[in-house]
Amino acid sequence: MIGQARAVLELDDIQRGALSPRPSPYAATYILFRVDERAHGRELMRRLSAVVTSAADTTSPLGETWVSVALTYHGLGALGVPRESLDTFSWEFRQGMAARAPALGDVGESAPANWEAPLGTPEVHVVLVALAPDGAQLEAAVDRARPAYHALPGITAIWRQDCHALPTETEPFGYRDGISHPAVEGSGIAGSNKLETPLRAGEFVLGYPDELGGLQRLEPEVLGRNGSYVVFRKLHQRVAAFRRYLRDNATDPADEEWLAAKIMGRWRSGAPLALSPDHDDPGLGADPYRNNGFGYERDDPAGFTTPGGCHIRRGNPRDAAVAGVPRLHRMIRRGTAYGPPLPEGTLEDDGADRGLMFAFVGAHLGRQFEFVQSEWMNDGVFFGAGDARDPVTGSGDFTIPRRPLRRCLRGLPRFVVTRGGEYCFMPSLSALRWLGDLED
């Protein structure tokens, strides 16, 4: 990074959904489309280019409401993007998430054969995401977007998932969510960790230098510049099973909360163990200026405070000396809850589908999302724990370093099951217009 000029992002050409943190509370929806007629697909792109919100539009009369659109590899093909252009996309994107399932740990119950239709199939072409502070404003946003695909018989809506964020900002397991957000150079959006130097724009947006000085480009340039890769995953959460496991392996309610904190790396309030190791601190957890300002290497290299195998330390080792340079694997992550909350204290599953719609935004599917998923979440070699998996999303054993004796949780079941997902590309507004103007 030494000697490299600071990037100036073309925010008016970048979709707001790529860079902007989400408001709280909020409601969101994901709508999937299939393109049956190429001409109608191109018309859809032309119309959506006038509906999608840009990253520069932060003072819109609509406030914290925006619409984003992304396309799968099959979707780009359905629009008639030339083969020489399709071949310039990353090979992971061209393969698709379902084909990458073994590398991602999507096996057994999480295997593509068990995914919710039509996720992971060639039927999914376009992903429309709308977000607003509440349900009424969300439906208004969808209504504004509806003319873009309405009365186009060659466009078929094939799936919808409504999501929400609670005023408590918690996800279904009960932890405060949406805390960590990296600072992207040139975006004008502050990161949530004051100790983290802003990352080069090219880590998240194509066409700009990344941390290694490289540029991710597509052909033609208008197709790739100011675009980002996006990963969408529907993750079912077994909340009752999670609660029962904590209860059955704890000595009392206080110990239960201590175990929950060690598994996640934060107390349920969002207070990190790194800053509040012995007890929860709800005030700290609710303070966005303090709850993410910490590292591991200087004060806790062995993980006695924040276990190396806990969920947040695996997902972002921060300044820790681990396999790979953490900055090269940094991602913009977003999780949005779906389904009804399981009533507090309930230990039996009620049969409802609940969990997270997970989204990742970046410029490098391989060394960002796939690396973190395969090397950090689904393996423990990088911190000396063999093949141990993430205790929240995986299964197996989980060791908590402790003096004089460590504590080991045995036989964690799978609390999270993948119900499907897609690798997508979120084009710039210019690229949407280019796609709309394609000719055979």
Automatic annotation (TrEMBL):
Q: Which residues form a coiled coil?
A: none
Please give an example of a GO cellular component term from this record.
cytosol
Under Gene Ontology molecular function, one entry of this record is: peroxidase activity
Record key words, sorted: Iron, Metal-binding, Oxidoreductase, Peroxidase
User: Which cofactor does the UniProt annotation name?
Assistant: heme b
Which protein family is named in the record? Belongs to the DyP-type peroxidase family.
PANTHER family (alphabetical)? BLR4509 PROTEIN, DEFERROCHELATASE/PEROXIDASE
Q: Which NCBIfam families match?
A: Dyp_perox_fam
The protein, known as = Dyp-type peroxidase family
- Which organism is the protein's source? Streptosporangium saharense
